[in-house]
Design a protein that fits this description.
single chain, about 260 residues, alpha/beta, Purple Acid Phosphatase, chain A, domain 2, binds fe (ii) ion
């Protein structure tokens, strides 16, 4: 049995100035929330921590290469790296192996610099974790590009990857969700879901992006955790075993 503790969409701003546009996203509270989460992590004794994107709330203009104010872009990017390093150091201090992927509010280049050893696949506690660094299309729908599609294909059909897997990505495959005038699932979600189920290798697909969260239990667990930056500050704990259905618990910091 492998125990995973999963949380997502922290939208943190610590060194980065300001806060998320949406006032329900408590970007500036996240460092203090992480202190409280650490206590919970120790009480659950997970084997692995999973963070599925939007670690930070980087302004869209910075991600697109422009400063949103009079400060030079390089200052903004220094803040981004500082905040990512803060999270990485926090994770290292907690002392549990972790898996991270970027989301659409992270700056992928900075993310790749800070979390350079955490891409593609990692074997932890008897499971192979795949990290998909996917993106949004111009229409704001998640897409899986050639590099990530090749990684996916290798995972589900490569002979050397015939093992129990967990797929981690910011965006969701299932269930389909249409909200705020956009699709939250991949353009190819139906095919991805079918391939995953046919492979018989994937125990869980863990994601974020849709802040209210989703959960579909079955032979393959599809879990989009509710956003950690919003009250009541949720995270999920999964007990995964190849022979048993996944056990899922949604927990909150505010209780
Ligand atoms: Fe988000």
């Amino acid at each position: 049995m492998t125990r995973i503790l999963h949380w997502t969409d922290m939208h943190m701003r610590r060194q980065l100035p300001g806060t998320a546009k949406d006032p329900s996203r408590l970007s500036r509270n996240v460092p203090a929330l992480l202190e409280r989460l650490e206590v919970k992590i120790l009480s659950h004794s997970p084997d692995v921590l999973v963070l599925s994107g939007d670690l930070l709330d980087v302004p869209a203009s910075v991600i697109n290469g422009n400063s949103p104010d009079e400060r030079p872009l390089s200052d903004w990017l220094n803040d981004v790296r500082s905040d990512l390093n803060f999270i990485k150091e926090w994770l290292s201090a907690v002392g549990v192996p972790f898996v991270v992927v970027p989301g659409n509010n992270d700056d992928e280049k900075s993310f790749a610099e800070v979390f350079s050893g955490y891409r593609f696949s990692n074997d932890i506690a008897g499971l192979r974790f795949y990290c998909f660094w996917d993106r949004l299309s111009a229409e704001q729908q998640p897409i899986r590009d050639k590099v990530n599609a090749a990684l996916f294909q290798e995972a589900i059909s490569g002979e050397e990857h015939e093992c129990a897997q967990v797929h981690v990505q910011h965006y969701m495959i299932h269930p389909p969700v249409f909200a705020k005038n956009k699709h939250y699932q991949y353009t190819t979600a139906v095919d991805l879901k079918k391939s995953i189920h046919q492979s018989g290798r994937v125990l869980a697909v863990l994601s974020g992006h849709y802040h209210p969260g989703t959960l579909v239990e079955g032979r393959v667990l599809h879990s989009g955790a509710p956003a950690f930056c919003e009250k009541p500050f949720s995270y999920r704990v999964y007990d995964l075993d190849e022979q048993l259905p996944a056990r899922v618990k949604t927990c909150i910091l505010d209780n």
